[in-house]
Amino acid sequence: KEICFLNFRNFIWLGCEYSLSYDIIPFDWTVWYLKKKIYLISTILLIVDQFVKHLVIANISYSDTIFLVPKFFYLTYVKNTGGAWSIFQDNFIFLLCISIAAIVFFFYYLSKKESYSIIEIIYLGRLFGGVLGNFIDRLCYHGVVDYLGFIFGSYYFPIFNIADISIVCGGILFLIDSFGGDKHGVTSRTN
After folding, report:
1. Which of 34-38, 41-45, 57-61, 133-137 has the lowest mean pLDDT?
2. Residue-wise burial string across 154-178, b where 16 or more C-beta atoms lie within 10 A, e elsewhere
3. 187: which strand partners?
4. Neighbours of 52 (CB within 10 A)
5. With left for phi above 0 and alpha for psi between -120 and 50, is residue 56 left, alpha or beta?
6. Which of 10, 58, 61, 165 has its CA 20 to 30 A from that of 117?
7. Is this prediction's pTM over 0.85?
């Protein structure tokens, strides 16, 4: 269940004597396995998101509309140079920095956390996969590729993509977990 890594201390390069004292650092496979699930969810969502975006770019002309359900659901190809609902429009550097900060925070959070509930695994995977999908778009296209559109009567809902759905679902699961979800998580520590 545990494997140990050696951490050498006091190793002197320019001296005649070498001190090879070391500490044993335990490696907890349970935490690694739980983090692997988060990365797996993120990777699957990222691959699906980028694959569908590639299909949209290759097969739909910019701003064209293809109705799948007349007067309700359509596919299109647009670039959103802002954030959600086009806020911060044309602020490429700011939005790129926000994405990078979210990615760095995600890795920091995972490096410090030692137990996860099932709902945490799901929402962290969804949030990270969605942020990465839109981050890649910002780097490659200087905007996020959006393609899913809905019409409700005379109201055109803002166009979005799979990464956006992933972020919203992850955010909702985070709120559910924060206000009453399972607080006992799958832990890596054994008593």
Report:
1. 34-38
2. eeeeebbbbbbebbebbeebbeebe
3. 115
4. 18
5. alpha
6. 165
7. no
Phi, psi (degrees; rounded to nearest 5) at 169:
-65, -40
- Among the listed residues 49, 137, 164, 177, the single catalytic one is 164
Residue 17 token pair:
């004597």
Lowest mean pLDDT among 92-96, 149-153, 175-179: 92-96
Task: Enter the tokens of residue 66.
Answer: 């293809």
Q: Which residues pair with 152 in a beta bridge?
A: 155
**β-bridge partners, 5:** 25
Calpha distance 178→65 (Å, rounded): 39
23 is catalytic: no
Tokens describing residue 54: 């590639």
Measured CA to CA, the distance from residue 20 to residue 26 in angstroms comes to 19
| The one catalytic residue among 23, 64, 90, 146 | 146
Active site residue 164: yes
- Give the up-direction half-sphere exposure of residue 104: CA atoms within 13 A in the CB hemisphere: 6
Determine the Cα–Cα distance for residues 133 and 184; give it in Å rounded to an integer. 31
Q: Give strand ranges (E) for the chain.
A: 2-8, 22-28, 65-69, 73-80, 115-116, 144-152, 155-160, 186-187
Q: Which residues contact 105 (CB under 8 A, 6 or more apart)?
A: none
Give, to the nearest 10 degrees, the angle between helix 92-112 and helix 118-141: 150
